[in-house]
Amino acid sequence: MAVPLMQAVRVGAYVVKQHLLGRKRYPLVLMLEPLFRCNLACSGCGKIDYPSEILNQRMSVQECLDADAECGAPVIAVAGGEPLLHKDMPEIIRGLLARKKYVYLCTNALLLEKKIDDYEPSPFFSWDIHLDGDQQMHDVSVSQEGVYTRAIAAIKLAKERGFRVSINCTLFDGADPKRVAAFYDEVMALGVDGIMTAPGYAYERAPDQEHFLSRQKTKQLFRDIFRLGKGKKWRFTQSPLFLNFLAGNEQYHCTPWGKPLRTVFGWQRPCYLLGEGYARTFKELLNDTHWDDYGTGNYEKCANCMVHSGYESTAVKDAIARPLHLLKVALMGPETEGPMAPEISLAHQRPAEYTYTKQVEERLQEIKDRKKPVTPPKVRILSSNDSKLPQDSVTAAD
Ligand code: SF4
């Protein structure tokens, strides 16, 4: 199994409990980005295009633990930026594991060998290695040669040391289904515990805007890949119904609150992919975000999104509602032939708003304000003989 049985049982029990409690919106996975700084500059990444004042910001250990306490999701994905650049990362991970959270530490693996002794294997902990395909695909994706080789060496090392390891594979336009299938075979042969896969989201700040997939192309690509995987034992960390959605067999609407994101800015609205504002608390994020403004069909920036951060939680909810359907897809795999589910109409989506510059200016101002020296209030030293004041108002004895 890509996910340990106990994890599946505990997460399943959490989901059922939320339904029994009648909660309309609840988080499934907390996405935690304690820094934006990275040691790579991938062409499809929209996360690192900030001024250095922002890239130098870090969430403290306490802020990370507080984010977990506020959110309460059973699973936490720690990402970034590159989380292994955060000097307190081992302490953050230890704190989350002590609370029995299932933690995925998402890394490009360049620092893994150097830092591996700071971490211990646990059924609650998994390295999640960024790997966007075979050597050529991945090195192109991260815009640097040699990264694939180092990631593979890191996977082998982590497996030798007894860690759980999954890979995080984002696919872009032009991906060849045969090569992707061969790559999945290869990582399975390495003993990787699970594959998390998704199409890239069209980040407006990503340097390469030419290779993001449309929804139609995404569905066809995954159908072609899954067809080649029939009879193979590929293990995915995602739910079978999400994979069925990727293959064009489900008409799902986005559930952006299912994977809420906490960054150095606060709680990002509305989701992991889109930063259109920030809430100070998780409660404020849930209660005050205009959720109906987002999702495919509602907003131009969501038009081509089929990423797990929006749709995995929808698939999990569907699994509760249609357990027999889940069982069928889990046993047979995603459907790869026949008509696809109808696409959501984009006729009434609202046009994109571009808020990046305003948000960066606001954040820079906040950072400046935090740095301003605080002038202490003027205190008048009173004498106990001061007859105009009661005795308990005297702040300093003469
Ligand atoms: S569809 Fe959902 S997950 Fe995707 S960008 Fe829009 S709000 Fe975010």
UniProtKB/TrEMBL annotation:
| InterPro entries per record | Aldolase_TIM, DUF3463, Hopanoid_synth-assoc_rSAM_HpnH, Radical_SAM_PqqE_MftC-like, rSAM, rSAM_sf
Domain Radical SAM core positions? 20-233
The protein's superkingdom reads Bacteria
Under the heading Gene3D superfamilies, the entry gives: Aldolase class I
> What keywords are annotated for this sequence in UniProt?
Iron, Iron-sulfur, Metal-binding, S-adenosyl-L-methionine
Is Manganese tagged as a keyword?
A: no
State whether keyword Isomerase applies. Answer: no
Chain intervals for the UniProt region annotation (Disordered)? 365-398
Entry's Gene Ontology molecular function annotations? catalytic activity; iron-sulfur cluster binding; metal ion binding
**Pfam name, any one:** DUF3463
Q: Which intervals carry biased composition (Polar residues)? A: 382-398
Q: Which cofactor does it need?
A: [4Fe-4S] cluster
The record ties this protein, via PANTHER family, to: PEPTIDE BIOSYNTHESIS PROTEIN YYDG-RELATED, RADICAL SAM DOMAIN PROTEIN
Q: What is this protein called?
A: Coenzyme PQQ synthesis protein E
